[in-house]
Amino acid sequence: MTAATPGSEVVPPSFFDERAGSLFPRLRWLSPRRLALFLLFWITIFFAGTVFVNNPFSGFGAGSNWSLGAGSPNYYWVVMYLHGLNTGLVGLAALVACDFFEIPSVHVRRGILVGVLIAGLLSPLGALVNTSAPWTNVGLWIQIIAFLALDEIVILFLWGMLSVWRDGAPRSRTFPFVTAMLTGAVMLVAALMGHLAGVILGFGNNPTLLGQYASQEMGMSLDDWAAALIGAHSYLMITAVPAGLMSLLAVRFGYYRLKGRTKLLAQAGFVLVGLDLVLQTGMALLLGFTSWPGNLPPQVTSLPGVPTFLALNDATNFLFLILGGLFLLGALVIGSARPKGEPRPIGLPLRFLPLGMLIVFTVLTALTEPTNGTAIGTPSQAWLRLFVAFYLTMLVFLMVLLVERLLGMRQQLRIGWMATGGSLATFAGVLLYLSAGLVAGGYVAAAGLLVLGVSFVTTTWWGLYDGVIRRAGAPVADT
After folding, report:
1. Which of 124, 121, 97, 119 is nearest to 108 (CA)?
2. pTM (2 decimals)?
3. Taking CA 109 as the corner, what is the angle to CA 107 and CA 112, rounded to the nearest 5 degrees?
């Protein structure tokens, strides 16, 4: 349905409030709400499958004796499986962003919905069988289709946001809106660099212009250039995904209602995050297309306590992305509304969970830095770093946004406490395992992951069930 006011044009409903069949009458089952909730369940199932791709328990207690590096036959599958999960993650984030930033264009809404359906469903499926690099691999081509659909999503999102900017809507002149647009642009740059690296890995020096550029302009082999592009692509995505999710959290958790020093703290956070996006993009272009090494100055690396693995990209992310995120998410917690006579904010603990997950992301990423000279470390390091420290923390961000947007208050509290308990148990177990090497840490972390998985599935069930009740015209409890 659409709403209209006297003397104004018809305004479409919020994206998640689109009724089934309103965007595609012949596909009445397809609605943004349904797709978002199903996609959360879909990628949760494939996250559980990571233990079969990169088993963190293999060689338990002797992980330092073997490694998962570029020479390992499983290395390619781990990386492409992560891409399959991340494609669904970014697609889900695009649905949330389209709703939160109120993109009005029906064409953009339709294009994003179809793109997310294709990318979100196909990429994890392709990752199941995309186990080796040959271009005759069916799984690779399935994922390529999904990657192109993701490109379409990002382009349409940027087009829709630019249209809102041109219309002069007040929301388009705010930090969350600008940060989201910048995030989309950075993701597009990262995607193009990733595509170029894929072409080099798949077709080699064809056209020969690629080899000429690598040797003459960069002074390196074609394979080394591909590795540099992959590294630059990875840094951009690691930066862009948290930055984009922070802008969505700000919209949903009351940034526009902040005042005084709390508002200034949030704005300072956005400035730091925006600077990081710009700086990381510049460094990625230098890493990907020049011979710039990206190392920290010797004066910094020689300081006591500075890790040997730290590069300029890492330091920039810590100084700007992480610090800015702590400012922003901390301000959202401080500025949370409280009912009269209640010491706790509305929606506890959902409002605290993102801040906690940012801390988990930072600590685990630092602790699981590869120690054996390979790209992603031992199997346990690789699994914790890629699938827990990065992917799982970002998925919790998105679950929090969906729960707060689509479920009732009592459901929010139940899932919020469940997800918080699961996150704390996972974090504690991982720390126990990494610091002391105790088997008990693995059991605690596994229990926490199981609780988190239940919270994801419960979110999907309650969200879809409430949708059925609403369409039947019955009242929905706890909303």
Report:
1. 97
2. 0.90
3. 105
